[in-house]
Amino acid sequence: MIPEALSNFYFRLDEFEKKLEIQAGGFGKVSYNKLNNQDVAIKIMNDPQEILQEANKHKHVKDCKFEILGIIFNETDSPKGLALELCYLGTLYQVIVGWEVHTLYNISHIVLWMEQLATVLLYLKEKELVHRDLKPLNILMFDKYREIRVCDFGISAWEKTEVQLAGTVTFIAPNSSTHLADHRDDMYSVGMILWQLIFRKHPYLDYNAENPAIDNDDVMKRVGNGERLPLDETHSSIQEVISSCWAHEKDERLSPQELHDKMVEWREKIKTSMKNLKSPRLFKEPYTFARPHGTFSCTHIKLGADYQKVKDLGFCVPKFANLIHNPRDNRDWRLNKRMIAEHNKLVTR
C-alpha cells in the first residue's frame, strides 16, 4: 500500500509510454517519456529503498531547481523509480565531449557555470547535505546552455554521517573506505570538473595506450598519495583555483563561498572586455575538442582588435562569438555561418 504521505506524489508505471532510453548504468535506466502530454524523464532503479531515499533528498533540496515530479510505483505498490523534469540540452559532460553537435565555449562560460555550481554548494552546505557524486554527467544544462542544475542525489548523505566510499573514482576525493560525509569533498569534485572543462579530456585516461582505459585502483592509489593532474598548460590564476579545490588536506580546500566570490570577481572583470556574453555556439565536426578560449596562453591579441586581454587575470577573450583559436598552431578562423548547427529543436524548445 502506498503511504498516505505520498498520496499526491506518485504515479503508476503504466501511465508512462517508454519512448527513448537516455542513459543506463549500475543504478538502473533513464528514459524519455510522456505523461499527460508533458515530456518527462523517468529513472527506473533497482533498489526500492534507494528510490525513497533519493526522492526524500530531492524534496529536501528542491530549491536547487531540478524538479522531481513524483515516485513511480508498479501494480503491486512497489517503488520502481522516479519521474523527473526532462532536460532537453543534456549534461555538462555532453557539452565537454560532444553530443550530436560540438559546443564551442570559452572562459566566460566556464566562469558562469562555476559561479552557479558554487551557489548550489553553498545551498547544500546550508542544508547539511553532501552530494558525493558531483561530475559533469550529473550537471544538467538549461536556458540555451546558460544555466546549470545539479541532479542525482542517489548517494548523497547528511553532513558528518558515516558513509562508505562511493561515486565516480576520477571525481571523488581521496578517503578511507569508511569515513564521515564532508562538504569539502564536494569541493574536490569541483576541482576535477573545472579541470575537465578546461582540458576537454577524460581525467586519468592514458590516451597514448593501445586500448585507453581508466584503472580505478591505480587512480585511487595515485590520488591517495597526493598526485594530481597536470595544470601547466593553463593560466596561473586558473591553476590556483583548481589546486585549492582539490588540495589533499580538506582544511586547505576552497570553501563554496570563496569559490563563489572568486567567480563573481572574474565575471565582473571579463564583462569589461566582453560586453555581451552569448550562449556557447554549436558547430559541426571540424572543431571537436578545441580548447576553451581564454584558458591557455596565446599571442594573437597583438594582431588586432578582435581579442581583449582581461586585466589582472591574463585571460584572452574573443570580442566576437564567431572567433575561435586553435591552440595547435596559434591560428585564428572566422567560422562561416553555414557551419553553425541549427539546433533549434534543443535550444529554443
UniProtKB/TrEMBL annotation:
Protein's GO biological process: immune response; JNK cascade; positive regulation of canonical NF-kappaB signal transduction
Signal peptide extent: none
Keywords, alphabetical: ATP-binding, Kinase, Nucleotide-binding, Serine/threonine-protein kinase, Transferase
Signal among keywords: no
One Pfam family in the UniProt entry: Pkinase
Keyword Transferase found: yes
GO MF entry, a single one: MAP kinase kinase kinase activity
Family the entry assigns: Belongs to the protein kinase superfamily. STE Ser/Thr protein kinase family. MAP kinase kinase kinase subfamily.
Protein name per UniProt: Protein kinase domain-containing protein
Source organism per UniProt: Mesorhabditis belari
